[in-house]
Design goal:
This protein is of the alpha+beta class. It folds into three domains: 18-86; 92-158, Signal recognition particle alu RNA binding heterodimer, srp9/1, CATH 3.30.720; 167-227, no CATH class. Helix content is 41%, strand content 26%. The protein contains six helices and twelve strands. The protein has helices at 18-46, 55-62, 68-86, 143-152, 181-195, 200-211, and strands spanning 2-4, 10-14, 90-93, 97-102, 105-110, 114-120, 123-128, 133-138, 157-158, 168-169, 214-219, 222-227. A five-stranded antiparallel beta sheet has the order 1-2-3-4-5, covered by helices on one side. Strands 8-7-6-9 form a four-stranded mixed beta sheet, covered by helices on one side. Strands 10-12-11 form a three-stranded antiparallel beta sheet. α1 packs across α2 (55-62). The longest helix is centred in the first third of the chain and has 29 residues, at 18-46. The model is unreliable at 4-8 (pLDDT under 50).
């Protein structure tokens, strides 16, 4: 989608297509309704088995009117759809900057600071002129559309991370890293193991490592690192 910015240049905004978002809500709500109905049937069956566990919760569920459980499931599905939409990446770019929005957090990246925009698996990565990563986001947008928009606005595009071969699997006390980096990576690994890559502390520690000249990315809860120095 293109429009004109206040500075007179063309602006492109990339977001998940409407049909995809609508489909997300429909699937989530239908799935919720189905689970609500299934829960009611399961409870009806459990109360007929005196030896079955969770008799109390099952009796509570059977006391709820039959139409209520699917309705609650639809509502839960709608909430899930809202959360999923909130986590989608929206990309806005023109000749001056690239703006990425995800989970209510906006990153504005100046053209002068951008060396390359690239794909790394399911992630969209913006590389800086000094070799660091300015942004890394899981991206559900079609990468063909992303690449076309990036090139159209005059930014370099790469189909893969040009620094891929420089990444090393992090292990405790990995040699060759600046002082304090292993401690930060150890703390980050703990949060990664316990709470997953979407946790805010994982992102904040990644940003702290970036300030120390270390790029880190995750694969199946394992950290891979490279130095920009």
């Amino acid at each position: 989608m293109g429009k004109t910015s206040e500075r007179g240049g063309k602006v492109t905004v990339l977001r998940e297509p409407v049909w995809s978002t609508v489909g997300l809500y429909v699937v989530a709500m239908l799935g919720g309704a189905g689970l609500g109905r299934l829960l009611g049937l399961l409870a009806d069956w459990l109360v007929t088995l005196p030896w079955a566990p969770m008799q109390g919760p099952a009796e509570l569920v059977t006391s709820i009117p039959a139409a209520v459980l699917p309705a609650v499931g639809v509502l839960a599905g709608a909430v899930l759809g809202v959360v999923a939409q909130y986590e989608q990446t929206v990309m806005r770019l023109d000749g001056d900057e690239v703006v990425l929005t995800r989970k209510g957090r906006q990153e504005r990246l100046s053209r002068a600071d951008i060396a390359t925009v690239c794909r790394d698996g399911r992630h969209l990565v913006v590389l800086g002129t000094e070799g660091g990563e300015l942004a890394r986001h899981e991206c559900g947008l079609p990468f063909g559309r992303v690449a076309g928009a990036v090139v159209r606005h005059g930014y370099p595009w790469a189909d893969a991370d040009p620094y891929e071969d420089e990444f090393r699997l992090w292990v405790p006390d990995l040699p060759g890293l600046p002082e304090g980096v292993n401690a930060l990576l150890k703390a980050r690994q703990k949060v990664l193991d316990e709470k997953g890559s979407g946790h805010g502390d994982v992102r904040e520690l990644r940003e702290e490592l970036s300030r120390l000249g270390i790029v880190v990315k995750d694969r199946k809860r394992r950290q891979y690192v490279r130095s920009t120095g």
